[in-house]
Input
Amino acid sequence: MSILHAIFQPGLFSNSSVQDAAVVGAVVAVVCAPVGVFTVVRGQSFAGHAFADITATGGSGAFLLGVSPLLGFVAMALAGAGATELLGAERQRGRDLATGVLLGAGLGLSALLLYLTTTTESTTGAAVTVLFGSIFAVSSSTLPMVIGFGVSALFLVGLVYRPLLLSSINPDLASAQGLGRRTVGLVYMVSLALSVALSALTIGAILSTALLIGPAAAALRLARSPGRAIVCAAVIGVTATWAGIILAYDSYNWPTAQQGWPVSFFVVSLVLAAYLLAQLTSRRARRA
Amino acid sequence: MTTPGGLALAHTPSLGGEVPALEVEDLWARLGGQDILRGVSFSVAAGSLTGLIGENGAGKTTLLRAILGLLPISSGEVRVARGHLGRRSIGYVPQKVVLDPDLPVRARDLVELGADGRRLGIPLRSNARRALVDQLLQSVDASHLANARVGALSGGEQQRVLIAHALASQPQLLLLDEPLASLDPRSTQETASLLGRIALDRKVGVLLSTHDINPLLPVMDRVVYLAAGRAVSGRTEEVVRSDVLSALYHHHVDVFHAHGRVLVSVGQEQSEQGCELDADDCADRESPSGGDAAGGPSRTATVAGPGKP
Output
Protein backbone atom coordinates (compact mmCIF):
# COMPACT_ATOMS: atom_id res chain seq x y z
CA MET A 1 0.00 0.00 0.00
CA SER A 2 2.78 2.36 0.89
CA ILE A 3 4.62 1.45 -2.33
CA LEU A 4 1.51 2.29 -4.36
CA HIS A 5 1.32 5.51 -2.45
CA ALA A 6 4.92 6.29 -3.25
CA ILE A 7 4.37 5.71 -6.96
CA PHE A 8 0.99 7.39 -7.37
CA GLN A 9 1.69 10.42 -5.23
CA PRO A 10 -1.06 12.78 -4.08
CA GLY A 11 -2.15 15.25 -6.73
CA LEU A 12 -0.93 13.12 -9.64
CA PHE A 13 -4.34 12.56 -11.16
CA SER A 14 -5.77 15.98 -10.43
CA ASN A 15 -2.80 17.92 -11.85
CA SER A 16 -3.87 19.46 -15.17
CA SER A 17 -0.32 19.47 -16.56
CA VAL A 18 -0.08 15.75 -15.87
CA GLN A 19 -3.46 15.17 -17.50
CA ASP A 20 -2.49 17.05 -20.65
CA ALA A 21 0.86 15.29 -20.74
CA ALA A 22 -0.85 11.90 -20.44
CA VAL A 23 -3.09 12.65 -23.42
CA VAL A 24 -0.27 14.05 -25.55
CA GLY A 25 2.01 11.15 -24.64
CA ALA A 26 -0.61 8.55 -25.49
CA VAL A 27 -1.43 10.15 -28.85
CA VAL A 28 2.22 10.38 -29.78
CA ALA A 29 3.01 6.80 -28.74
CA VAL A 30 0.04 5.44 -30.69
CA VAL A 31 1.02 7.39 -33.83
CA CYS A 32 4.65 6.33 -33.51
CA ALA A 33 3.70 2.63 -33.37
CA PRO A 34 2.71 1.95 -37.01
CA VAL A 35 5.13 4.53 -38.41
CA GLY A 36 7.95 3.12 -36.30
CA VAL A 37 7.21 -0.47 -37.36
CA PHE A 38 7.38 0.53 -41.02
CA THR A 39 10.55 2.55 -40.38
CA VAL A 40 12.29 -0.46 -38.86
CA VAL A 41 11.02 -2.86 -41.54
CA ARG A 42 12.15 -0.50 -44.31
CA GLY A 43 15.51 0.04 -42.61
CA GLN A 44 15.09 3.80 -42.57
CA SER A 45 15.87 4.53 -38.94
CA PHE A 46 18.66 6.80 -40.10
CA ALA A 47 16.24 8.97 -42.10
CA GLY A 48 14.05 9.15 -39.00
CA HIS A 49 16.97 10.28 -36.89
CA ALA A 50 17.96 12.91 -39.45
CA PHE A 51 14.45 14.33 -39.40
CA ALA A 52 14.64 14.40 -35.64
CA ASP A 53 17.83 16.47 -35.74
CA ILE A 54 16.53 18.99 -38.22
CA THR A 55 13.26 19.38 -36.33
CA ALA A 56 15.46 21.01 -33.69
CA THR A 57 15.98 23.83 -36.18
CA GLY A 58 12.22 24.24 -36.56
CA GLY A 59 11.67 24.20 -32.81
CA SER A 60 14.39 26.84 -32.22
CA GLY A 61 12.97 29.00 -35.01
CA ALA A 62 9.52 28.74 -33.46
CA PHE A 63 10.88 29.96 -30.12
CA LEU A 64 12.53 32.93 -31.81
CA LEU A 65 9.28 33.79 -33.63
CA GLY A 66 7.19 33.16 -30.54
CA VAL A 67 4.92 30.50 -32.06
CA SER A 68 4.19 27.00 -30.80
CA PRO A 69 7.29 24.77 -31.07
CA LEU A 70 5.09 22.00 -32.49
CA LEU A 71 4.47 24.10 -35.61
CA GLY A 72 8.22 24.58 -36.01
CA PHE A 73 8.85 20.85 -35.56
CA VAL A 74 6.21 19.89 -38.11
CA ALA A 75 7.23 22.48 -40.71
CA MET A 76 10.89 21.51 -40.56
CA ALA A 77 10.25 17.75 -40.57
CA LEU A 78 8.00 18.07 -43.63
CA ALA A 79 10.62 20.21 -45.38
CA GLY A 80 13.19 17.54 -44.57
CA ALA A 81 10.97 14.79 -45.97
CA GLY A 82 10.47 16.72 -49.21
CA ALA A 83 14.17 17.50 -49.51
CA THR A 84 15.33 13.89 -49.00
CA GLU A 85 12.83 12.67 -51.59
CA LEU A 86 13.94 15.33 -54.08
CA LEU A 87 17.68 15.10 -53.50
CA GLY A 88 18.32 11.42 -53.88
CA ALA A 89 15.49 8.97 -53.59
CA GLU A 90 16.68 6.76 -56.40
CA ARG A 91 19.60 5.09 -54.71
CA GLN A 92 20.01 4.10 -51.09
CA ARG A 93 23.50 5.56 -51.01
CA GLY A 94 22.37 8.85 -52.52
CA ARG A 95 19.59 9.07 -49.96
CA ASP A 96 21.94 8.46 -47.07
CA LEU A 97 24.30 11.15 -48.28
CA ALA A 98 21.48 13.64 -48.83
CA THR A 99 20.14 12.91 -45.36
CA GLY A 100 23.55 13.26 -43.79
CA VAL A 101 24.26 16.61 -45.41
CA LEU A 102 20.85 17.99 -44.42
CA LEU A 103 21.36 16.81 -40.87
CA GLY A 104 24.55 18.78 -40.36
CA ALA A 105 23.11 21.92 -41.92
CA GLY A 106 19.97 21.66 -39.79
CA LEU A 107 21.79 21.31 -36.48
CA GLY A 108 24.16 24.14 -37.39
CA LEU A 109 21.27 26.48 -38.08
CA SER A 110 19.63 25.30 -34.88
CA ALA A 111 22.72 26.36 -32.92
CA LEU A 112 22.45 29.87 -34.36
CA LEU A 113 18.73 30.18 -33.70
CA LEU A 114 19.07 28.96 -30.12
CA TYR A 115 21.95 31.40 -29.57
CA LEU A 116 19.80 34.27 -30.88
CA THR A 117 16.92 33.19 -28.65
CA THR A 118 19.06 33.09 -25.52
CA THR A 119 20.61 36.50 -26.26
CA THR A 120 17.25 38.18 -26.76
CA GLU A 121 15.29 36.38 -24.06
CA SER A 122 18.13 35.75 -21.63
CA THR A 123 16.87 32.26 -20.85
CA THR A 124 18.33 28.84 -21.43
CA GLY A 125 14.93 27.13 -21.22
CA ALA A 126 14.47 27.14 -24.99
CA ALA A 127 17.46 24.92 -25.71
CA VAL A 128 16.43 22.30 -23.17
CA THR A 129 12.81 22.36 -24.32
CA VAL A 130 13.71 21.98 -27.99
CA LEU A 131 16.44 19.41 -27.64
CA PHE A 132 15.15 17.32 -24.74
CA GLY A 133 11.44 18.14 -24.64
CA SER A 134 9.15 19.20 -21.83
CA ILE A 135 5.88 17.39 -22.02
CA PHE A 136 4.62 19.10 -18.83
CA ALA A 137 4.97 22.47 -20.54
CA VAL A 138 2.68 21.58 -23.45
CA SER A 139 -0.10 24.15 -23.30
CA SER A 140 -3.73 23.07 -23.47
CA SER A 141 -4.11 25.06 -26.67
CA THR A 142 -1.53 22.82 -28.36
CA LEU A 143 -3.60 19.72 -27.59
CA PRO A 144 -6.00 19.99 -30.58
CA MET A 145 -2.98 20.46 -32.87
CA VAL A 146 -1.30 17.34 -31.46
CA ILE A 147 -4.45 15.32 -32.05
CA GLY A 148 -4.91 16.81 -35.54
CA PHE A 149 -1.39 15.99 -36.71
CA GLY A 150 -1.58 12.57 -35.04
CA VAL A 151 -4.82 11.63 -36.76
CA SER A 152 -3.40 12.83 -40.10
CA ALA A 153 -0.32 10.64 -39.75
CA LEU A 154 -2.43 7.62 -38.75
CA PHE A 155 -4.80 8.24 -41.65
CA LEU A 156 -1.93 8.37 -44.16
CA VAL A 157 -0.33 5.16 -42.90
CA GLY A 158 -3.72 3.43 -42.82
CA LEU A 159 -4.48 4.56 -46.35
CA VAL A 160 -1.36 3.03 -47.91
CA TYR A 161 -1.03 0.21 -45.34
CA ARG A 162 -1.05 -2.73 -47.77
CA PRO A 163 1.05 -1.30 -50.62
CA LEU A 164 3.47 0.09 -48.03
CA LEU A 165 3.74 -3.25 -46.24
CA LEU A 166 4.35 -5.13 -49.48
CA SER A 167 7.00 -2.70 -50.70
CA SER A 168 8.65 -2.75 -47.26
CA ILE A 169 8.80 -6.56 -47.24
CA ASN A 170 10.21 -6.69 -50.76
CA PRO A 171 10.24 -3.88 -53.36
CA ASP A 172 10.36 -6.35 -56.27
CA LEU A 173 7.11 -8.00 -55.21
CA ALA A 174 5.47 -4.57 -55.02
CA SER A 175 6.61 -3.49 -58.46
CA ALA A 176 5.42 -6.86 -59.84
CA GLN A 177 1.94 -5.76 -58.79
CA GLY A 178 2.43 -2.51 -60.64
CA LEU A 179 2.90 -0.41 -57.51
CA GLY A 180 4.93 2.76 -58.00
CA ARG A 181 7.59 3.12 -55.33
CA ARG A 182 7.57 6.91 -55.35
CA THR A 183 3.98 7.62 -54.32
CA VAL A 184 3.83 5.11 -51.49
CA GLY A 185 7.31 6.14 -50.34
CA LEU A 186 6.36 9.81 -50.27
CA VAL A 187 3.18 9.19 -48.25
CA TYR A 188 5.27 7.19 -45.78
CA MET A 189 7.87 9.98 -45.55
CA VAL A 190 5.18 12.55 -44.71
CA SER A 191 3.77 10.36 -41.94
CA LEU A 192 7.31 9.76 -40.67
CA ALA A 193 7.90 13.51 -40.58
CA LEU A 194 4.67 14.10 -38.62
CA SER A 195 5.50 11.35 -36.13
CA VAL A 196 9.02 12.64 -35.56
CA ALA A 197 7.65 16.15 -34.98
CA LEU A 198 5.10 14.88 -32.47
CA SER A 199 7.70 12.75 -30.75
CA ALA A 200 10.02 15.78 -30.57
CA LEU A 201 7.31 17.62 -28.63
CA THR A 202 7.14 14.81 -26.07
CA ILE A 203 10.75 13.85 -25.44
CA GLY A 204 12.69 16.44 -27.44
CA ALA A 205 14.05 16.71 -30.94
CA ILE A 206 17.29 14.90 -30.25
CA LEU A 207 15.60 11.94 -28.56
CA SER A 208 12.47 11.69 -30.66
CA THR A 209 13.56 8.63 -32.62
CA ALA A 210 13.85 6.67 -29.37
CA LEU A 211 10.06 6.68 -29.05
CA LEU A 212 9.70 5.95 -32.77
CA ILE A 213 12.21 3.11 -33.18
CA GLY A 214 12.50 1.57 -29.70
CA PRO A 215 8.96 0.24 -29.14
CA ALA A 216 8.72 -0.85 -32.79
CA ALA A 217 12.01 -2.74 -32.65
CA ALA A 218 10.92 -4.48 -29.43
CA ALA A 219 7.49 -5.31 -30.89
CA LEU A 220 8.98 -6.80 -34.06
CA ARG A 221 10.90 -9.22 -31.85
CA LEU A 222 7.80 -10.31 -29.98
CA ALA A 223 4.90 -10.25 -32.42
CA ARG A 224 3.96 -12.87 -35.00
CA SER A 225 2.25 -10.69 -37.59
CA PRO A 226 2.65 -7.10 -38.83
CA GLY A 227 -0.70 -6.05 -37.34
CA ARG A 228 0.13 -7.46 -33.92
CA ALA A 229 3.56 -5.80 -34.05
CA ILE A 230 1.86 -2.41 -34.44
CA VAL A 231 -0.51 -3.04 -31.52
CA CYS A 232 2.38 -4.32 -29.41
CA ALA A 233 4.50 -1.25 -30.24
CA ALA A 234 1.62 1.03 -29.23
CA VAL A 235 1.24 -0.75 -25.90
CA ILE A 236 4.98 -0.51 -25.17
CA GLY A 237 5.10 3.14 -26.24
CA VAL A 238 2.08 4.25 -24.20
CA THR A 239 3.25 2.30 -21.15
CA ALA A 240 6.75 3.77 -21.30
CA THR A 241 5.39 7.30 -21.76
CA TRP A 242 2.84 7.11 -18.95
CA ALA A 243 5.29 5.43 -16.59
CA GLY A 244 7.84 8.09 -17.52
CA ILE A 245 5.36 10.87 -16.72
CA ILE A 246 4.51 9.32 -13.33
CA LEU A 247 8.15 8.84 -12.41
CA ALA A 248 9.02 12.39 -13.46
CA TYR A 249 6.16 13.73 -11.32
CA ASP A 250 7.38 11.66 -8.37
CA SER A 251 10.95 12.80 -8.84
CA TYR A 252 10.03 16.30 -7.58
CA ASN A 253 9.98 14.78 -4.11
CA TRP A 254 13.10 12.67 -4.46
CA PRO A 255 15.85 13.70 -2.06
CA THR A 256 18.52 14.11 -4.75
CA ALA A 257 16.58 16.58 -6.85
CA GLN A 258 16.04 20.27 -6.32
CA GLN A 259 13.45 20.05 -9.08
CA GLY A 260 11.91 17.23 -11.11
CA TRP A 261 13.97 15.02 -13.37
CA PRO A 262 13.24 15.28 -17.11
CA VAL A 263 10.46 13.05 -18.47
CA SER A 264 12.58 12.21 -21.52
CA PHE A 265 15.15 10.45 -19.38
CA PHE A 266 12.56 8.12 -17.89
CA VAL A 267 10.77 7.45 -21.20
CA VAL A 268 13.95 6.68 -23.08
CA SER A 269 15.27 4.43 -20.26
CA LEU A 270 11.98 2.49 -20.13
CA VAL A 271 11.96 2.06 -23.91
CA LEU A 272 15.50 0.75 -23.75
CA ALA A 273 14.52 -1.66 -20.98
CA ALA A 274 11.56 -2.90 -23.04
CA TYR A 275 13.81 -3.45 -26.04
CA LEU A 276 16.40 -5.39 -24.07
CA LEU A 277 13.69 -7.49 -22.44
CA ALA A 278 12.12 -8.28 -25.82
CA GLN A 279 15.52 -9.20 -27.21
CA LEU A 280 16.10 -11.54 -24.31
CA THR A 281 12.70 -13.26 -24.38
CA SER A 282 12.68 -13.75 -28.13
CA ARG A 283 16.15 -15.26 -28.04
CA ARG A 284 15.08 -17.64 -25.29
CA ALA A 285 11.89 -18.52 -27.19
CA ARG A 286 13.88 -19.29 -30.31
CA ARG A 287 16.29 -21.54 -28.45
CA ALA A 288 13.44 -23.45 -26.84
CA MET B 1 18.90 -6.81 -88.28
CA THR B 2 18.74 -9.98 -90.32
CA THR B 3 16.95 -12.97 -89.01
CA PRO B 4 18.80 -16.17 -89.89
CA GLY B 5 16.81 -18.66 -91.90
CA GLY B 6 16.98 -21.22 -89.13
CA LEU B 7 14.85 -18.98 -86.94
CA ALA B 8 11.80 -19.03 -89.21
CA LEU B 9 10.40 -21.59 -86.81
CA ALA B 10 10.22 -18.89 -84.17
CA HIS B 11 7.44 -16.93 -85.78
CA THR B 12 3.86 -17.46 -84.72
CA PRO B 13 4.18 -21.06 -83.67
CA SER B 14 0.80 -22.73 -83.84
CA LEU B 15 -0.80 -23.60 -80.54
CA GLY B 16 -3.19 -26.02 -82.21
CA GLY B 17 -6.37 -24.13 -81.39
CA GLU B 18 -5.49 -23.70 -77.69
CA VAL B 19 -6.32 -20.43 -75.94
CA PRO B 20 -3.22 -18.24 -75.68
CA ALA B 21 -2.45 -16.79 -72.25
CA LEU B 22 0.40 -14.77 -73.72
CA GLU B 23 1.42 -13.76 -77.22
CA VAL B 24 4.70 -11.98 -77.89
CA GLU B 25 5.30 -10.70 -81.39
CA ASP B 26 8.56 -9.34 -82.77
CA LEU B 27 9.50 -7.79 -79.43
CA TRP B 28 12.47 -5.41 -79.30
CA ALA B 29 13.72 -3.82 -76.11
CA ARG B 30 16.69 -1.60 -75.31
CA LEU B 31 18.48 -1.24 -72.00
CA GLY B 32 21.41 1.11 -71.43
CA GLY B 33 21.73 1.88 -75.15
CA GLN B 34 21.92 -1.79 -76.14
CA ASP B 35 19.33 -3.93 -77.85
CA ILE B 36 18.72 -6.66 -75.29
CA LEU B 37 15.77 -8.25 -77.11
CA ARG B 38 15.97 -8.45 -80.91
CA GLY B 39 12.66 -9.51 -82.35
CA VAL B 40 11.40 -12.19 -79.97
CA SER B 41 8.16 -14.01 -80.88
CA PHE B 42 6.37 -16.86 -79.10
CA SER B 43 3.15 -17.70 -77.36
CA VAL B 44 2.14 -19.52 -74.19
CA ALA B 45 -1.12 -21.47 -74.14
CA ALA B 46 -3.41 -21.39 -71.14
CA GLY B 47 -2.89 -24.54 -69.09
CA SER B 48 0.61 -25.17 -70.39
CA LEU B 49 4.12 -24.75 -69.07
CA THR B 50 6.80 -23.07 -71.16
CA GLY B 51 10.46 -22.99 -70.24
CA LEU B 52 12.44 -19.88 -71.08
CA ILE B 53 15.95 -21.22 -71.48
CA GLY B 54 19.12 -19.22 -71.87
CA GLU B 55 22.50 -18.43 -70.35
CA ASN B 56 23.10 -15.55 -67.97
CA GLY B 57 22.90 -12.33 -69.96
CA ALA B 58 20.76 -13.83 -72.74
CA GLY B 59 17.91 -11.45 -71.88
CA LYS B 60 15.58 -13.71 -69.87
CA THR B 61 14.91 -11.24 -67.07
CA THR B 62 14.55 -8.38 -69.56
CA LEU B 63 11.97 -10.39 -71.50
CA LEU B 64 9.95 -11.16 -68.35
CA ARG B 65 10.09 -7.52 -67.23
CA ALA B 66 9.00 -6.37 -70.69
CA ILE B 67 6.01 -8.72 -70.57
CA LEU B 68 5.12 -7.34 -67.13
CA GLY B 69 5.27 -3.81 -68.48
CA LEU B 70 8.08 -2.82 -66.10
CA LEU B 71 10.30 -1.96 -69.05
CA PRO B 72 9.45 0.13 -72.11
CA ILE B 73 9.57 -1.88 -75.33
CA SER B 74 11.02 -0.33 -78.51
CA SER B 75 8.76 -2.18 -80.91
CA GLY B 76 6.62 -5.27 -81.21
CA GLU B 77 3.64 -6.39 -79.24
CA VAL B 78 2.82 -8.22 -76.01
CA ARG B 79 -0.73 -9.52 -75.61
CA VAL B 80 -1.83 -10.98 -72.30
CA ALA B 81 -5.16 -12.74 -71.83
CA ARG B 82 -7.57 -10.77 -69.70
CA GLY B 83 -8.51 -12.32 -66.39
CA HIS B 84 -11.81 -12.14 -64.55
CA LEU B 85 -13.37 -8.67 -64.53
CA GLY B 86 -11.40 -7.98 -67.71
CA ARG B 87 -8.36 -7.01 -65.64
CA ARG B 88 -4.93 -7.60 -67.12
CA SER B 89 -3.33 -9.62 -64.41
CA ILE B 90 0.01 -11.39 -64.37
CA GLY B 91 1.42 -13.32 -61.45
CA TYR B 92 5.15 -12.80 -61.04
CA VAL B 93 7.82 -14.40 -58.90
CA PRO B 94 10.99 -12.28 -59.19
CA GLN B 95 14.52 -13.64 -59.12
CA LYS B 96 16.30 -14.11 -55.76
CA VAL B 97 13.68 -12.67 -53.44
CA VAL B 98 15.30 -12.02 -50.08
CA LEU B 99 12.93 -12.12 -47.12
CA ASP B 100 14.22 -10.89 -43.78
CA PRO B 101 13.94 -13.66 -41.15
CA ASP B 102 13.57 -11.02 -38.42
CA LEU B 103 10.29 -9.69 -39.78
CA PRO B 104 7.04 -10.94 -38.26
CA VAL B 105 5.51 -11.71 -41.65
CA ARG B 106 3.80 -15.09 -41.88
CA ALA B 107 3.33 -17.06 -45.08
CA ARG B 108 -0.35 -16.25 -44.70
CA ASP B 109 0.34 -12.48 -44.63
CA LEU B 110 2.44 -12.63 -47.79
CA VAL B 111 -0.20 -14.59 -49.71
CA GLU B 112 -2.90 -12.14 -48.57
CA LEU B 113 -0.81 -9.28 -49.93
CA GLY B 114 -0.72 -11.09 -53.27
CA ALA B 115 -4.50 -10.90 -53.40
CA ASP B 116 -4.96 -7.32 -52.25
CA GLY B 117 -1.54 -5.67 -51.98
CA ARG B 118 -2.68 -2.87 -54.26
CA ARG B 119 -5.77 -1.96 -52.24
CA LEU B 120 -5.91 1.10 -50.03
CA GLY B 121 -7.02 1.04 -46.42
CA ILE B 122 -6.51 -1.42 -43.60
CA PRO B 123 -7.53 -5.03 -44.36
CA LEU B 124 -10.52 -6.34 -42.46
CA ARG B 125 -10.77 -9.89 -41.24
CA SER B 126 -13.04 -11.94 -43.46
CA ASN B 127 -13.74 -15.64 -43.78
CA ALA B 128 -13.69 -15.45 -47.57
CA ARG B 129 -10.21 -13.96 -47.52
CA ARG B 130 -9.01 -16.58 -45.07
CA ALA B 131 -10.50 -19.38 -47.16
CA LEU B 132 -8.82 -18.04 -50.32
CA VAL B 133 -5.44 -17.96 -48.60
CA ASP B 134 -5.90 -21.48 -47.18
CA GLN B 135 -6.85 -22.79 -50.59
CA LEU B 136 -3.85 -21.11 -52.27
CA LEU B 137 -1.43 -22.46 -49.68
CA GLN B 138 -2.93 -25.91 -50.07
CA SER B 139 -2.49 -25.77 -53.85
CA VAL B 140 1.27 -25.31 -53.36
CA ASP B 141 1.51 -27.94 -50.62
CA ALA B 142 2.23 -25.32 -47.98
CA SER B 143 -0.81 -25.50 -45.68
CA HIS B 144 1.41 -26.45 -42.77
CA LEU B 145 3.55 -23.34 -43.30
CA ALA B 146 0.66 -20.83 -43.05
CA ASN B 147 1.68 -19.38 -39.69
CA ALA B 148 5.44 -19.66 -40.03
CA ARG B 149 7.65 -16.63 -40.60
CA VAL B 150 8.42 -16.55 -44.33
CA GLY B 151 11.96 -15.33 -43.76
CA ALA B 152 12.74 -18.41 -41.68
CA LEU B 153 11.55 -20.94 -44.29
CA SER B 154 13.88 -22.93 -46.53
CA GLY B 155 14.49 -21.88 -50.14
CA GLY B 156 12.06 -24.41 -51.56
CA GLU B 157 9.37 -23.53 -49.00
CA GLN B 158 9.79 -19.82 -49.68
CA GLN B 159 9.49 -20.46 -53.40
CA ARG B 160 6.19 -22.27 -52.87
CA VAL B 161 4.80 -19.44 -50.72
CA LEU B 162 5.90 -16.91 -53.36
CA ILE B 163 4.08 -18.95 -56.03
CA ALA B 164 0.92 -18.84 -53.89
CA HIS B 165 1.45 -15.07 -53.49
CA ALA B 166 1.70 -14.71 -57.28
CA LEU B 167 -1.40 -16.84 -57.87
CA ALA B 168 -3.49 -14.90 -55.35
CA SER B 169 -4.65 -12.32 -57.90
CA GLN B 170 -6.02 -15.23 -59.97
CA PRO B 171 -3.91 -14.42 -63.04
CA GLN B 172 -4.16 -16.02 -66.48
CA LEU B 173 -0.40 -15.88 -66.79
CA LEU B 174 2.29 -16.78 -64.25
CA LEU B 175 5.86 -15.62 -64.82
CA LEU B 176 8.76 -16.92 -62.74
CA ASP B 177 12.34 -15.69 -62.97
CA GLU B 178 14.82 -18.50 -62.24
CA PRO B 179 12.59 -20.18 -59.63
CA LEU B 180 14.76 -23.29 -59.61
CA ALA B 181 18.10 -21.56 -59.09
CA SER B 182 19.73 -22.19 -55.71
CA LEU B 183 17.33 -24.98 -54.79
CA ASP B 184 18.62 -28.40 -53.80
CA PRO B 185 17.95 -31.19 -56.35
CA ARG B 186 14.92 -32.52 -54.52
CA SER B 187 13.21 -29.11 -54.14
CA THR B 188 14.04 -28.41 -57.78
CA GLN B 189 12.12 -31.50 -58.91
CA GLU B 190 9.25 -30.79 -56.51
CA THR B 191 8.93 -27.16 -57.63
CA ALA B 192 9.05 -28.10 -61.32
CA SER B 193 6.31 -30.71 -61.01
CA LEU B 194 4.27 -28.36 -58.79
CA LEU B 195 4.37 -25.72 -61.53
CA GLY B 196 3.32 -28.27 -64.15
CA ARG B 197 0.37 -29.25 -61.97
CA ILE B 198 -0.61 -25.61 -61.36
CA ALA B 199 -0.65 -24.94 -65.11
CA LEU B 200 -3.00 -27.87 -65.70
CA ASP B 201 -5.27 -27.49 -62.68
CA ARG B 202 -5.70 -23.73 -62.78
CA LYS B 203 -5.63 -23.32 -66.59
CA VAL B 204 -2.83 -20.80 -66.18
CA GLY B 205 -0.13 -20.17 -68.75
CA VAL B 206 3.18 -20.65 -66.92
CA LEU B 207 6.41 -19.19 -68.28
CA LEU B 208 9.55 -19.71 -66.22
CA SER B 209 13.13 -18.86 -66.96
CA THR B 210 16.01 -21.16 -66.15
CA HIS B 211 19.57 -21.73 -67.26
CA ASP B 212 19.19 -25.47 -66.72
CA ILE B 213 16.67 -27.18 -68.98
CA ASN B 214 16.83 -30.61 -67.33
CA PRO B 215 14.49 -30.25 -64.35
CA LEU B 216 11.80 -29.01 -66.73
CA LEU B 217 12.01 -31.84 -69.26
CA PRO B 218 9.28 -33.99 -67.65
CA VAL B 219 6.78 -31.12 -67.24
CA MET B 220 7.52 -28.71 -70.07
CA ASP B 221 5.09 -28.36 -72.99
CA ARG B 222 7.14 -25.87 -74.95
CA VAL B 223 10.50 -24.20 -74.84
CA VAL B 224 11.61 -20.69 -75.74
CA TYR B 225 15.36 -20.76 -76.26
CA LEU B 226 16.96 -17.34 -75.88
CA ALA B 227 20.48 -16.40 -76.96
CA ALA B 228 21.81 -12.87 -77.27
CA GLY B 229 18.33 -11.41 -77.50
CA ARG B 230 16.95 -13.71 -80.18
CA ALA B 231 14.69 -16.68 -79.62
CA VAL B 232 13.48 -19.93 -81.11
CA SER B 233 10.42 -21.61 -79.70
CA GLY B 234 8.50 -24.81 -80.13
CA ARG B 235 8.32 -28.29 -78.66
CA THR B 236 11.48 -29.36 -76.87
CA GLU B 237 12.44 -31.92 -79.53
CA GLU B 238 11.93 -29.29 -82.27
CA VAL B 239 14.14 -26.68 -80.62
CA VAL B 240 16.81 -28.43 -78.59
CA ARG B 241 18.60 -29.75 -81.66
CA SER B 242 22.09 -29.11 -82.93
CA ASP B 243 21.01 -27.45 -86.20
CA VAL B 244 18.37 -25.16 -84.68
CA LEU B 245 20.54 -24.00 -81.77
CA SER B 246 23.59 -23.57 -84.05
CA ALA B 247 21.53 -21.19 -86.19
CA LEU B 248 20.41 -19.32 -83.07
CA TYR B 249 23.90 -19.00 -81.62
CA HIS B 250 25.57 -18.28 -85.00
CA HIS B 251 28.10 -21.02 -84.45
CA HIS B 252 28.26 -24.73 -83.82
CA VAL B 253 26.25 -26.13 -80.92
CA ASP B 254 26.26 -29.78 -79.87
CA VAL B 255 23.27 -31.35 -78.18
CA PHE B 256 23.91 -34.58 -76.31
CA HIS B 257 21.33 -36.87 -74.74
CA ALA B 258 22.33 -39.15 -71.92
CA HIS B 259 20.35 -40.93 -69.21
CA GLY B 260 17.27 -38.83 -69.94
CA ARG B 261 19.23 -35.61 -69.56
CA VAL B 262 20.20 -33.06 -72.16
CA LEU B 263 23.59 -31.41 -72.44
CA VAL B 264 23.93 -28.38 -74.67
CA SER B 265 27.52 -27.48 -75.47
CA VAL B 266 28.29 -24.23 -77.23
CA GLY B 267 31.59 -24.27 -79.12
CA GLN B 268 34.30 -21.64 -78.90
CA GLU B 269 33.11 -18.56 -80.70
CA GLN B 270 35.32 -17.21 -83.48
CA SER B 271 33.26 -14.43 -85.02
CA GLU B 272 33.50 -10.93 -83.60
CA GLN B 273 29.78 -10.42 -84.10
CA GLY B 274 29.09 -12.78 -81.27
CA CYS B 275 31.15 -10.62 -78.97
CA GLU B 276 29.17 -7.53 -79.88
CA LEU B 277 26.01 -9.35 -79.05
CA ASP B 278 26.93 -10.03 -75.51
CA ALA B 279 29.77 -8.23 -73.85
CA ASP B 280 29.48 -10.17 -70.63
CA ASP B 281 29.87 -13.48 -72.39
CA CYS B 282 32.98 -12.23 -74.16
CA ALA B 283 34.58 -11.30 -70.89
CA ASP B 284 33.80 -14.79 -69.69
CA ARG B 285 35.40 -16.31 -72.71
CA GLU B 286 38.60 -14.34 -72.49
CA SER B 287 39.25 -15.13 -68.87
CA PRO B 288 40.74 -18.55 -68.40
CA SER B 289 38.30 -20.52 -66.28
CA GLY B 290 38.45 -24.01 -64.87
CA GLY B 291 35.82 -25.19 -67.34
CA ASP B 292 37.90 -24.15 -70.32
CA ALA B 293 40.98 -25.88 -69.06
CA ALA B 294 39.11 -29.12 -68.56
CA GLY B 295 36.83 -29.05 -71.57
CA GLY B 296 39.16 -27.73 -74.25
CA PRO B 297 37.70 -25.29 -76.74
CA SER B 298 34.08 -26.14 -76.02
CA ARG B 299 31.97 -24.65 -73.30
CA THR B 300 29.04 -26.16 -71.51
CA ALA B 301 26.25 -23.72 -71.92
CA THR B 302 23.21 -25.17 -70.41
CA VAL B 303 23.97 -27.97 -68.10
CA ALA B 304 26.63 -30.11 -66.61
CA GLY B 305 24.84 -32.97 -64.99
CA PRO B 306 26.17 -36.01 -63.21
CA GLY B 307 25.24 -38.10 -66.27
CA LYS B 308 27.52 -36.08 -68.54
CA PRO B 309 28.81 -38.24 -71.39
User: Anything to note?
Assistant: The domain at 15-279 of chain A is CATH 1.10.3470.10 (ABC transporter involved in vitamin B12 uptake, BtuC).
